[in-house]
Amino acid sequence: MPIQNSPYQAFATLLSASGHPVSPAELHGLLLGRSCAGAGFDVDGWLSDVASLLETEPQDNVRNALIGLQEMVKSELTGEDMTVVLLLPTDDAPLAERAAALGQWCQGFISGFGLNSPDRSSLSTEATEVLQDLVAISQVQDALEDSEDGESDYMEVMEYLRVAPLLLFTETNKQAGAPAAKPSLH
Question: Sorted alphabetically, which InterPro entries does this protein's record hold (predicted)?
Fold first, then answer.
């Protein structure tokens, strides 16, 4: 089977060739999570958050790819389309590999959101449930079986993950834009 050079595969190759043992899915999840938590789109903040995941300072080619990834996420979250394209293996990759990447994406998202979320108690019930769903999804990737049912479960989860970040992003940005009732003591 020929290896297709999907964006995911190209990013995976770039990361492993640069000595970063991290999945593109986890990086993309981290970026979306931090953006949805209200971290904004400051390049230095993103590179700082990602440096701890990469365990070393990224080289220029990786750094440029990370900045490009951030530009893509920014346009997805703030654009008219309101669609998020997940950085995951293509559909012809084995289900186990795709499911593992889905779990890594969720773990990255939860980390990114957690690092940058000002106060979870102010989130709506719906937003809190979305975060709980992401935690659950990050832990069940092994449960997807290589069957038609497993395939449809995977697709359902993937569709859910394409809208979950938009809900969280909309909510945290609505809160951030709302005038504070009283000055904060933090």
Answer: YgfB-like
